[in-house]
């Protein structure tokens, strides 16, 4: 691949980006697209002013860029929560690190490479890309010192930046814990694997256990039931109807079935009040069959509530009994975050599920080798024209040649790659994660592994090794092999940066799926409801992509530094576009509290060490023993740094510090808020939809606080139309259970159980 | 190597064993050797009757074997603690597993191998050992089914036995925890990394922290001081002397220095009472310099005592503050078990020390390759006679040839191997383990890794791979390489079993070091004191050896099954000899509470899986795809079993179950024992030797309970002499601080601090 092919590829992608971004700046101003581009604002109840005769809306404008740039971190935190801030910090941290890397490598390493003696210089546009790589130096070159020194500078800068960033994020997480004083999850322990008892229900077993061992701190508990919510409501209604038929009319509470219109009424009807209570409450009614079946439907899982946060923490961390597979305690996830389906999975299955999904993920990794190998075929045109002779005339044209070698492979890879995150999400679901945030984090880690393996290693090694599927045959020679392969693949990675990075961001901002869906709904189906699901930010797709580009940046830094400016452009674009998307499109329903950061940190350290190993391999190939000798202590130092960070910061992201929880408990006891918090606990974790006000009060903070938009974002006048749409949608969603309603239907008006319905990841 | 060389080696070792064991049965009856062979009994105060004119004592007798055989597990538990029982269970479990393996492999696999078509049969004594191995089958042989089926039977039997054994040991551990109700360690948390405060001492910081956050459960605490015990006593005496000089005589407590004769007096003198109190107590005295220096000597480490066991457990498991490297809490080790030196190591150094010792251990592993490579040279006589021409006439003799190829290599390996455990112990000390039992366990794990690597892998692969130090160059081909190498090394492993196994056991029982030391002391130095250190059972030497033989047994089972009967003999001998040694020689000063079992379990599973992988390699070499195909699910099933055991049992060996501790707390509160336990806590963990009675009451159970010897062990009459020796030694040890006194000096009469002196591991 030469410079002209690279420029072709860059040109195509810049064109795509400019077109899409301009299109976005127009489309976003069309009132009919508000559902797609302003999901968060609509769900927050803030309405745009718009005027059908306001023609400025057909001209592209950079106002959204200005707004994204101007939004501060505190505003982000208030609007979208800690995870979003952490994600943006990842982008910022990448920008900082790669600014240093780019300055060092472009100003020192690139000239040394370019003026190396191994290759002859041609005309500028015909220069092969390998002339910019370390391959252009001859063996035992004295100039390898520049590379070694650059590696030291890069590593120190990256470690220092990572350290300070980890420190800042840890502080933010602690502040986040301390600030979220009204969270019911702090008081709640999810108890799984409650042992079965022949003569009492799970409910009684749980009560007996906790009144026995945690008498001082135990408050109450709530069992988890088998059925889905809707199913249960219907069943209960049916049972209630039959009960009323059979039982004498002097039962104290008189269930009125007619007023039950699925939680849109003024408050819960009697039938739901009874069932939302503990099963004990049901038994008191003694409605014959009803008691029996309710008990049968209990699962050996309970939310147990404690009097203080510290008590809950203690109960969740201690090994309860002498059988570690019974009475398994974890701090409960937020009510909105609970993944109810998986709560019903028996605990003793979980370890098997974990192994099974691991095996499945590894198997998928190897299946994925097939398309990757095909892509590699494309970069080698000769093999292609040999295998497909009918393509030969086409391939003889220069422009086609450029497009096929320079652009097509990475587009195909990107397209294939779209299947990965949903599948990994599915694996994480199967694995039995108890909360949505945990599931997403688990999927994120899987996608990171997958991306690094299938995009980086397989692409690099496929030429020489993968074809014989003997990648594992030479661990010792790996550094040298990688060192040989990285410069040859530099061109491919650059085009991958254009397609997956630049064009991917443009796709992200224009939201093609949502846009088309919206179009179909309005134009073809003539559905004025403009149905479109509410979106959560896809951390499990975006973080791995960010990390992959980090890996490419580090590994190419001293070997083929030409990629760095393109990467920096990607990171800058990512900063602006993701900020815009987080502020406007995605709704925060659940949070992991910054737990994505350790993934970023560890993977970045891994990338750094890998790049050092590859550099070591290259110094070995170039027979520079001194440079190799100096690289080994660098690797050891980086490992030491990693271990230190693991000791110093990682526990904060796994556990809650007792100190902070105790301080929160005391503050609440002094202000008298404790009583109120206790009263809200059961309602927050009820499987049955309760009245909306209560649950949103007790649940996590509403996705959009009352923060106002900065002035630049205030669009053109008159909010009548959107107001009307909103009012219409609200009334509609309160009468039927249409799932795919516009976010204006405000999903947080429902109880946590309903979050399951709004589930796009 | 042929059958005759093997028999030579076996003959030499059987001879050595018979001679040494007969010698032992005579030597042990000599009163002058009681110090060597009955350390435990002497330390327990039980004295043998003996009579200088009792001439039967010069005849060998098997009485000790009978006694070892007859001792039950409960007696072992009472006499030597849970760790000893767990060790004996390891031997029993090995016997059970390898009985099954031997029966299956000798009756099915061996005939199939022997009557295979690949080699011609010679005379019995000239048959090469390889004729008994799987190499004798031709490729695609239908008889490989026998091997595959045997592998299934072996694996299932091993897993079943391991499962039930793990279950039993887990129960025993729980019973041990529940039974040890008087242990002060249950109430105590070791708090490290207390943060420094400019305006108060560590002591005040600790008190402030715990009265603030653990007001309900905190009892008191005890700081750790910098100096060694003896050093501190001397320093304090000196300070006290000066204080008395300077301070007016009306100080309330009047330290009487003269009566202080290092803890042998009637009780602690005033000076030690003061210092054993908290430093706060010292400050109240206001003795000028004394206060200042005592505070300076405080380390940021404290033993914190709680009101109940559950409270201590909670405090030890919760993340205390937002900086995970401050206020690090662990459940305290037993007072006898504390490794005081390492408590003074700053906590922030520990992670570095861990990495450094890891690097050191790995480096040592590679240095050790040199002697191993030399040994391998010996087994190849041709290379030897080429390199050392002067040896040629010697090597031409048949018997020398046999000795050198069949016997010498493993003797040299065994001798080199004696350097490993002390070094690993040193690494574990450097690592900063806070207790002796933890240090031994950590050393044990290191030695296991080292043994498996250096004895098994390096010996197996040295012929083909190690010489080029390119062991890592082929991970994928490893199964096939191992499969090729294992049968060729079968002879070496058998002789290793004779020398390290059989002869090693004979050496263990005769205790050559102790015997020679004893002889020197009596005959040459004319020292009637018969000084010899008290011994602890060297788990870190014996468990790895046991595990190595297990590994050899599994890996050779279907490939070269001739080794199995010899291994079984080793395990039987080990059972008798270790039982005898545990009952008579070794003293139990500290316990890990059965925590060695997971090491045994995991390593056995590893051995099993490795043998399956090797078999898989062999089936591949023999081109039997069906057998290979059937082996892969077996490996997966074994991995699943391993994971299940990890889930089901491992947590019990890492944490205390809350249920049991709460039950113990309640029982003690009802019986009113709690108060007494609380009062003993400080004395138990005092760094300064207090009066012996107190500490032995509060400390762990005395090494020998009052259990009586079975009748067969009651030796000949008259206990006068030993009684006299004992009385003499006791009086002596109370007057000077001779370290190497005979165990009759009863080390547990001293406070825990003194355990450091009696430290042979």
UniProtKB/TrEMBL annotation, chains A, B:
Residues 5-165 form the CSC1/OSCA1-like N-terminal transmembrane domain. InterPro entries: Csc1-like, CSC1/OSCA1-like_7TM, CSC1/OSCA1-like_cyt, CSC1/OSCA1-like_N. Residues 731-761 are annotated as: Disordered. It is found in: Membrane. GO terms for cellular component: plasma membrane. It is a multi-pass membrane protein. It holds the Pfam family RSN1_TM. Belongs to the CSC1 (TC 1.A.17) family. This is (rape) hypothetical protein. It comes from Brassica napus.
């Amino acid at each position: 691949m030469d410079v002209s092919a690279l420029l072709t590829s860059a040109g195509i992608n810049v064109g795509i980006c400019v077109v899409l971004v301009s299109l976005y700046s127009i489309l976003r101003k069309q009132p009919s697209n508000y559902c797609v581009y302003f999901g968060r604002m609509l769900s927050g109840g803030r309405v745009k002013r718009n005027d059908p005769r306001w023609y400025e809306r057909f001209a592209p404008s950079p106002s959204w860029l200005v707004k994204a740039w101007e939004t501060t971190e505190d505003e982000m935190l208030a609007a979208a929560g800690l995870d979003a801030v952490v994600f943006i910090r990842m982008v910022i941290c990448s920008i900082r690190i790669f600014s240093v890397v780019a300055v060092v490598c472009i100003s020192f390493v690139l000239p040394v490479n370019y003026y190396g003696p191994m290759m002859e210089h041609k005309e500028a546009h015909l220069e092969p890309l390998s002339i910019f790589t370390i391959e252009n130096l001859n063996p035992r070159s004295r100039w390898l010192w520049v590379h070694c020194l650059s590696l030291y500078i890069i590593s120190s800068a990256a470690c220092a930046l990572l350290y300070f960033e980890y420190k800042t994020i840890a502080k933010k997480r602690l502040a986040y814990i301390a600030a979220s004083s009204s969270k019911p999850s702090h008081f709640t322990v999810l108890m799984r694997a409650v042992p079965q008892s022949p003569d009492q229900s799970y409910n009684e077993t749980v009560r007996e256990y906790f009144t026995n061992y945690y008498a001082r701190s135990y408050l109450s508990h709530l069992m988890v039931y088998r059925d889905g919510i809707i199913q249960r409501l219907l069943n209960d209604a049916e049972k209630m109807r039959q009960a009323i038929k059979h039982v004498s009319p002097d039962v104290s509470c008189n269930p009125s079935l007619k007023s039950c219109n699925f939680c849109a009424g003024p408050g819960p009807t009697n039938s739901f009040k009874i069932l939302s209570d503990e099963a004990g409450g049901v038994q008191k009614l003694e409605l014959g069959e009803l008691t029996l079946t309710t008990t049968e439907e209990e699962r050996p899982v309970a939310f147990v509530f404690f009097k203080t946060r510290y008590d809950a923490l203690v109960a969740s961390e201690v090994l309860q009994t002498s059988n570690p597979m019974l009475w398994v305690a974890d701090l409960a996830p937020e009510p909105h975050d609970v993944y109810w389906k998986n709560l019903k999975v028996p605990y003793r299955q979980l370890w098997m599920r974990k192994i099974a999904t691991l095996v499945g993920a590894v198997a998928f990794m190897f299946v994925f080798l097939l398309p990757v190998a095909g892509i590699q075929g494309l970069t080698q045109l000769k093999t292609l024209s040999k295998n497909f002779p009918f393509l030969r005339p086409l391939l003889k044209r220069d422009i086609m040649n450029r497009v096929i070698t320079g652009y097509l492979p990475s587009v195909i890879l990107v397209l294939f790659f779209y299947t990965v995150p949903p599948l990994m999400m599915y694996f994480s679901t199967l694995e039995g994660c108890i909360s949505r945030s945990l599931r997403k984090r688990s999927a994120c880690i899987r996608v990171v592994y997958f991306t690094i393996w299938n995009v980086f290693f397989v692409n690099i090694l496929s030429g020489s090794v993968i074809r014989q599927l003997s990648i594992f045959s030479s661990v010792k020679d790996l550094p040298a092999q990688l060192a040989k392969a990285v410069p040859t693949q530099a061109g491919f990675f650059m085009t991958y940066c254009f397609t997956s990075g630049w064009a991917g961001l443009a796709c992200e901002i224009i939201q093609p799926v949502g846009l088309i869906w919206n179009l179909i709904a309005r134009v073809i189906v003539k559905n004025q409801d403009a149905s479109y699901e509410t979106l959560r930010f896809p951390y499990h797709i975006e973080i791995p992509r960010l990390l992959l580009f980090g890996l490419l940046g580090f590994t190419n830094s001293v070997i083929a530094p030409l990629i760095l400016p393109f990467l920096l452009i990607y990171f800058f674009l990512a900063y602006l576009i993701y900020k815009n998307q987080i502020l406007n499109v995605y709704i925060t329903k659940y949070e992991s509290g910054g737990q994505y950061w350790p993934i970023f940190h560890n993977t970045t350290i891994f990338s750094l060490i890998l790049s050092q190993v590859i550099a070591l391999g290259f110094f070995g190939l170039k027979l520079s023993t001194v440079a190799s000798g100096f690289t080994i202590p660098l690797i050891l130092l980086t490992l030491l740094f990693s271990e230190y960070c693991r000791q110093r910061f990682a526990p904060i992201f796994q556990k809650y510090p007792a100190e902070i929880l105790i301080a929160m408990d005391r503050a609440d006891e002094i202000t008298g808020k404790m009583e109120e918090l206790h009263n809200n606990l059961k309602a927050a974790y009820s499987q049955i939809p309760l009245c909306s006000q209560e649950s949103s009060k007790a649940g996590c903070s509403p996705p959009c606080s009352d923060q106002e938009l900065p002035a630049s974002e205030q669009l053109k006048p008159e909010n009548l139309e959107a107001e009307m749409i909103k009012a219409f949608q609200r009334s509609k969603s309160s009468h039927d259970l249409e799932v795919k309603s516009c976010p204006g239907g405000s999903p947080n008006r429902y109880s946590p159980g309903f979050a399951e319905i709004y589930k796009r990841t």
